[in-house]
Design goal:
Layout (H helix, E strand, L loop, with lengths): L1 E5 L3 H12 L3 E5 L7 H10 L3 E2 L3 H5 L4 E4 L4 H11 L8 E4 L5 H12 L4 E4 L2 E2 L1 H7 L2 E6 L2 H6 L1 H7 E8 L3 H29 L4 H8 L7 H11 L11 H17 L5 H18 L24
Parallel strand pairs: 1-2, 1-4, 2-3, 4-5, 5-6, 8-9
Antiparallel strand pairs: 7-8
Helix pairs in contact: 1-2, 1-6, 9-11, 9-12, 9-13, 12-13
């Protein structure tokens, strides 16, 4: 297939590499000045990708266009630039985490141009992107979902059709709701363990075989919290902060309770305001408790 991938960040470079490995023709474009942009593009050129200077050049004559971008505004800007050259019958797959209302609006707009839009946010981090084992939750026309299967088969081992446009985005925000609240609970529990002078390694061994186990606990405690390794990360606090604000917005629209999402959102916002937006989700432990900017795991 002729595929374009727009915005070659940490996820995009790995997904694109797998698409090339599977034998697809790939054109790539990256936003000027983006982190590691030139390096990522160089990696893909070496693997056979064609680098393009403009979005329009990248999407021209492509059957499928993938993209993973930071926020709603950036997604809309990129799609606006792509519109004049999108192939009739093309499928645009947006892997970003954005509001479902934005996804629905874009799907309606693109449909008028003869282009299918699938909101297809991803979960699984850099490792999942590298290994082609991402989870993808997909909203949009069922026919477009089926036609995009050759793409999904390469980058995912768990892609699920959720229904009409916006359903993929809502599903991702539910995942972020669980992950954000879960991170706050894990940090609070680790602080309790520290205050009770419980050995962190021993705690990890116990919880990993108990009902308190979660993926957030598994990735946070030894990898991040034990030695306060909060940076660099593929899961920055500022992104979860944005996602939790989206969770609260749709909860309000649907008159759905959001008690714990509100609490977690307040903590992530406090962490970002303290200058730790680029730090790992687990760094919110520094924004909990007595409010001091110190490591709660350090012995007194």
């Amino acid at each position: 297939m002729n595929i374009a991938y727009l915005a070659i960040g940490a996820m995009g470079v790995r997904m694109s590499a797998n698409l090339l490995k599977a034998g697809h023709n790939l054109k790539v474009w990256n936003r000027p000045g983006s982190k590691n942009g030139d390096h990522n593009i160089a990696i893909l050129i070496e693997k056979g990708a064609i680098a393009c200077d403009t979005i329009a050049e990248a999407v021209e004559n492509c059957e499928i266009i993938g993209m993973c971008i930071t926020d709603d505004e950036a997604v809309c800007q990129v799609i606006e630039a792509a519109l004049p050259k999108l192939l009739n019958g093309a499928i645009l797959l947006d892997h970003s985490t954005i509001l479902p209302q934005t996804s629905i609006s874009l799907a309606e707009k693109l449909k008028k141009q003869g282009v299918d839009f699938l909101d297809a946010p991803i979960s699984g981090g850099e490792q999942g992107a590298e290994e082609g084992t991402l989870t993808i939750m997909i909203g949009g026309e069922k026919d477009a979902f089926l036609r995009a299967a050759p793409y999904f088969e390469v980058v995912s081992n768990n892609y699920v059709y959720m229904g009409e446009s916006g359903r993929g985005s809502i599903t991702k925000l539910i995942n972020q709701h669980l992950a954000g609240v879960g991170q706050a609970v894990v940090c609070e529990a680790v602080m309790l363990a520290k205050n009770a002078k419980i050995d962190i390694d021993s705690l990890y061994r116990v919880i990993m075989k108990s009902w308190g186990r979660s993926f957030v606990f598994e990735r946070s405690v030894i990898e991040r919290l034990k030695d306060s390794t909060f940076y660099p990360t593929y899961a920055p606090s500022e992104m979860m902060n944005k996602d939790l604000h989206h969770v609260l917005a749709i909860a309000e629209d649907l008159h759905s309770p959001s008690l714990f999402a509100n609490l977690a959102s307040d903590i992530f916002q406090k962490n970002v305001d303290a200058g730790r937006g680029k730090w790992d989700h687990s760094s919110i432990i520094l924004s909990m408790g007595n409010g001091k900017n110190e490591d709660p795991l350090l012995e007194e």
